[in-house]
Design goal:
The protein is α+β, with helices and mostly antiparallel strands and 193 residues long. It is built from four helices and ten strands, in the order E-H-E-E-H-E-E-E-H-E-H-E-E-E. 24% of the residues are buried. Keywords: Hydrolase, Ligase. One of its GO terms (molecular function) is 2',3'-cyclic-nucleotide 3'-phosphodiesterase activity.
C-alpha cells in the first residue's frame, strides 16, 4: 500500500516562483516542481478498508475556498538542517480545514500527528549541509513571496516508499465550495441582465 497524505496543491505560477529558488546550496536535493505541495495531514501506510473510510469521511467535509500565499523561507533541523522550505501565510480557513482532517483521522483510529502543524512547501532535502551554507542561502532569499492564490480543493496523495520528495500521485480530489465574494447566492434567473 502506498503512503498516503492529505495536501493542498501549489498552483503552477507559485510553483514556478519556487523553482527559481533552486540552486546555490551544497548538499541540497531539490524537489521537482510538480511535487510541490502543502501537507495538511500525513496518514502513512494503511489498509484498503481504512483508506476507503478516510476517503468517505474527507468527501463529507464542507468548507469554503480560501486565499493563501507563500512567504519567507526557513529550514527544519536547527543543529543539523535536513530541509529548506517556503512558508505559508496564516489563513484561519486552512487551520480549520487541517483541524477537521486531524479529528477525522483520529476518529478512524489513526494515531494523532505528533508534530505541530507547520504549513510549508518543502523545497529541498539536505544531506550533510553545513549550517553556514543554509544560513547564507536563506539570508539571500528571505524576502521571497508569491501573489495570493485561491485554494478551491484539497487532495489525498500517495507516495511510493522512497528517499522523499516524490513522485506523488493524486488519489482523490475534494472540492471546497465557493465562498461567494459578495455574491448572495440568489439564482441568476432572479436578476435579468
Amino acid at each position: 500500500m502506498p503512503r498516503l497524505f492529505v495536501a493542498l496543491e501549489v498552483p503552477r505560477n507559485a510553483a514556478m516562483s519556487l523553482s527559481l529558488l533552486r540552486g546555490g546550496l551544497p548538499g541540497a536535493r531539490w524537489i521537482d516542481v510538480e511535487n510541490f505541495h502543502i501537507t495538511l495531514r500525513f496518514i502513512g501506510d494503511i489498509d484498503g478498508r481504512t483508506a476507503d473510510e478516510v476517503v468517505d469521511k474527507l468527501d463529507r467535509i464542507e468548507r469554503p475556498e480560501f486565499q493563501l500565499a507563500l512567504s519567507g523561507l526557513g529550514s527544519f533541523g536547527s543543529k543539523k538542517p535536513h530541509s529548506v522550505f517556503a512558508g505559508v501565510t496564516q489563513a484561519p480557513e486552512m487551520y480549520a480545514l487541517q483541524g477537521e482532517i486531524e479529528r477525522i483521522c483520529q476518529r478512524l483510529g489513526l494515531p494523532a500527528d505528533p508534530r505541530k502543524f507547520t504549513p510549508h512547501v518543502t523545497l529541498a532535502r539536505l544531506r550533510n549541509a553545513r549550517i553556514e551554507d543554509v544560513a547564507h542561502y536563506l539570508s539571500g532569499r528571505g524576502n521571497f513571496h508569491t501573489a495570493p492564490f485561491t485554494v478551491n480543493r484539497f487532495v489525498l496523495m500517495s507516495s511510493k516508499e522512497s528517499v522523499g520528495g516524490g513522485p506523488y500521485l493524486t488519489e482523490e480530489v475534494f472540492p471546497l465550495y465557493e465562498s461567494g465574494g459578495g455574491w448572495d447566492g440568489a439564482d441568476l434567473r432572479d436578476h435579468p441582465v
